[in-house]
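Lab meeting prep.
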Amino acid sequence: MTKRVVTDEELERPLVPYADALTQILSAFSPLPPEIVPLERARDLILAETIVADFDVPGFDNSAMDGYAVRAADTADSPTALKLVDDLPAGSDPQVRIEPGTSATIMTGAPLPPGADAVVPWEDTDRGDGVVTVLRQTTPGKHVRPAGEDLHAGDEVIQAGTELSPVHLGVIASLGRTQVAAHRRPRVAVLSTGDELAIPGEALKPGQVYDANKTLLTAMCERAGADIDATALIGDEPDVIGSWLRQVARHADLIVTTGGASVGEHDWIRAILEAEGTLSLWRIAIKPGKPVAFGRIEGAPVLGLPGNPGSAFVGMHVFVARAIRAMAARPIEPESVRARLAAAVKGSPSRTLFCRVRLEANVAVPLPAQSSVVLSNLIPAHGFAIVPPGGLPEGADVTVEML
């Protein structure tokens, strides 16, 4: 089994302050170039152009009811009999003008024929054949949907930067468009490392635990707006890890690894980045999650997270999710609220603490079992209270980043 030499230099390397690390990492990520995307694949993407209506929607006055197209003036002395001169289903192109004393059968959505200025619904007539009797007076514009009722030519309909919902896509389709310019989802590759890890579903060998991180981080990356490009679970084999990193770097926008970023004899991620790529920073003053590594291999950015699931979750929430949102042109910062701490939090003398809390109104209640190895107590957690070095007393105001 290959071991690496642990040096005094890495053991004594100073921690990078949290704010400095966050700034440095995020400065490496910006929105991916826009692409032309078919509407059927554009849902939830961020629009990269402003959509302007080229024409009125609808483009013509049309009927809002099934009934009869009339001249409103002809109904002033109702009941009145009107001769039927046309039959207009939806999608028709009226050619016959409605003259005084005449009418046309019309269906919902059909264009209003020339000369008509109102629609009388079925129930206000005797539904005659050849001649229809209108039973009640109507007024100009009644039951008529005017041209441009939805959109007018020249309207700025959807602004660039909008996250495209199904309604947005429907509106764009109503303008006759089949595609839009949008920022695609970043392609992210996720790697779990460690000889101690087993694939869920397989039998555990002595000393092994099931790998939760690959499943956890993959789902979190997708939730942040990424497409998963590749995943793998590899033991502590530097040659195999390096080969996999170089391979996925050819097409991934970001590589996320978990495990192998600390100072153990079998921790290889940082060493591989230093030997085969670049290492921009390592060891950040946060708790949990100190041994985060950031660098590049074959030009692709790599965020190496710790192997303990609680620490990996923090690294994903703090760094990876923000990087993904930056590439997808989404708002980078997570939702946050201000709250009061229900109990004092001791914190760390030198590191920013991400304290798991449950919110009760505007009170943040710290949860038990804050260990970096514990994952299950994130289920009841609403967010992380950001506790500065040195801790905070009971009742202190604190920012809670929502999960």
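Slide two material, second protein:
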Amino acid sequence: MNGPSAYLTSKAGLSLAMAFHELGTNALKYGSLSVPDGRVSLAWAFDPADPQQIEIRWVEIGGPDVVAPTRRGFGSRLLERALASELSGRVVIDYDPTGVRCIITGRMVEAVPSLNMPLG
């Protein structure tokens, strides 16, 4: 994990918890966490032009070769549609042969940081 402290809104925290649960479950079943040497890199950064806009990158490394699914299941739809809508942002899942990559962008940061829990 790598990124600056980020104070999330409760809505963003719940949405990200669901997203990380889905990504983690899939990584454990089929992806990088299904093999002993696999791992996940999680990094985030703020948009310098808009400090409430954040980008989060989930990258799987060292797992089995990835094959893109032939159809979108509930988890993919949850991430790409519902999460993006909840965060007024965007979710892109890339089924790169070397590992799944998921980029989440949106307005997730509360203006009053003392009222929320830090991400990092």
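Talking points for slide two:
The chain has one domain: 10-111.
Residues 10-29 form the longest helix (20 residues).
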